[in-house]
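Q: Got a minute? One more chain.
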Amino acid sequence: ASAMICEMLELPALSSVIQICRARRIDQRLVLYVEHYLRPELFPGILDHDLNESLTELYARCYNLHYGQVRFDMVPTALHADAAAALKVSLGSPGLRIARINYDQRDRLIDCDLEYWRHDAIHVRANVRGKL
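A: Always. Here it is, folded:
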């Protein structure tokens, strides 16, 4: 895996990981390209499963793993070739990259994702309440 992915997964440089790439839809519209990187020792045989289903459900059903802590980093980006092709937009189109690092219920680092969202598919709302 790349140095960045190894760092995200807290693995030695050039470690082997499982990579799963998928395009996702909301209301039948392509909005997201995601690259999942999994620690292989935690997911033996995962590539033999139907990877079109929810990985969250697959983790729970087949590996007894449930998400615990999750860290998100969001930055604007230009979509790289794989993301642009999957989302059917021009190379370099604006997007949002969300890097997600996931821990399980035992606080073990299990995987990370790089999500690439179309810029026109994002709506952020935040409600903040002051002290009462």
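A: The beta strands are 18-26, 29-38, 67-78, 94-104, 109-118.
Q: Perfect, thanks.
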